[in-house]
Amino acid sequence: MPMWKETAGADKLPRRLYRPTILSFFPTEDRMKLPVVEVAAEAYHFLWRQRRTLVDRASLPLAVVLIVGIIEYLTGTPSGGGGDLPVPAPPPGADGGSAGPGGTGNGNGNGGGDAGPGGPALLLSLAYFAMSLPFLVGWYRLVVLGPGAVAGRFPLAFTRLEGRFLLWMVVIGLVLVVPLVISGAIAVPFATGDISGTQVSPVPMLLAVAMFILLILASLRLSFVFPAIAAEEPVSFARAWEITKGNSLRLLGLMALVHVPVLVFGAIIEAFAVGLGLPFSLVLFVDLAISFTIMALGATAFGEAYVRLR
């Protein structure tokens, strides 16, 4: 299937010449509407069918992160069991990462914890981030191209695909940081006045919220570059914006459908593990298993949406 299709009608530009506008956030009559519930259901079914593949693809990355976390925990000042674990949100393109789809951390919600009183577990965070790259690339290839695309591919492979994946993550982060800073700057006067008891117009805060929502929608659409990178297909912001035209809110709904249930379920499982007073290593293992599962689910939904809309 050719990746660039000419748009019918003399008054319309070819896709490759498409230029995004603020109006393209909202649905149009001539665009395919993403079947949100159907794609979400397919994501869950796919993950269940590929559960053995998930174990095969995630075992080594998870083991590396687990070893790094245990070493860092033991060499720090232990704080005992319990508390939030220092597992950060996965990279964008998982399902929605902070600079990727949805602006949401698709991990287990425990980012930013401490390995002990000494401070944040930096090495654990870096290890988790690094191991997420080959895992996501491989999983996207599985979803978009099929099992043959990952057959014989080492789970810890760092190739040019992982390099491009990382590069585009940085680019998207830089693109989104400016509006994020602006929206934050708009909200600061409101928050400051609210804390001090001073009456402040709610308009700046409403503008900041609106900008933040648009930022989330933009991150979802721009992050369509990630499945394209993994599948070795044409990659550009213009193409990602064009193929997602009219589906911004649907993509947001899709990410909510696939992430909210498993995040809640994962939080319950993790709380149960912590409540049992399990050793740090076992709690961290549970935490990482949940994170990689959620990462795979998000990438499955996003990859399936990409296949349908491209």
UniProtKB/TrEMBL annotation:
Membrane in keyword set: yes
Record keyword Transmembrane present: yes
Domain of life: Bacteria
Biased composition regions of type Gly residues, renumbered to the chain: 94-113
Membrane-spanning parts: 58-76, 121-144, 165-191, 203-230, 251-276, 282-307
Region (Disordered): 82-113
Alphabetized UniProt keyword annotations: Membrane, Transmembrane, Transmembrane helix
Protein name: Transmembrane protein
Organism: Caenispirillum salinarum AK4
